[in-house]
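Troubleshooting: if your tokenizer reports a length mismatch, compare your output against this known-good record of 192 residues.
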Amino acid sequence: MHLPTLETKRLRIRPLRMEDLNDCHRLYVDIDWADKAVSEEENLKRRREWLEWTVRNYEQLALLYQPPYGERAIEDKESGRFVGLVGLVPLLAPFGQLPSFGGVEGARFSAEVGLFWALTPARQRQGYATEAAHALVDHAFGTLKLGRILAGTQRDNRASIAVMRRLGMRIEENPYPEPPWFEVTGILEAGR
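Known-good structure output:
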């Protein structure tokens, strides 16, 4: 169940390597996902530990015949430069609260396969997130035979919602106030 390197017209989506540490760290700093309560050194240490786990995780999941969860590097094919991350990740949330999942307030949490992307600011608004995510979705539906993929974001993240729409996702908002981080979900069913 290894996820192969995928290629699009402009991009290569490949497994992360330890050599990607500085690019991944810079991405998290640039998009404001680094922990501001700790030092730059501590953030880099945390990113290194995450990257080591991610790289080992590819092989371990494959040995267990599990889905190829985890982020992958997006690189520009022409220059070979790091553009960002895209991946399949586990999502755990009260999806039963969404209208198409039943709309039940306080629904129990369930697990779904999620789609993740994050791009360096200099490469945003150029179609890279959509292009990379589309390649991953095609592989997930075509080769892995997934039935559904979800993506989550906040109501004010218009850029991510726009990517969801370009991928053909149905956008649903959680109609309930809890949990506060469960705001917008993009839903894409196989064959649609």
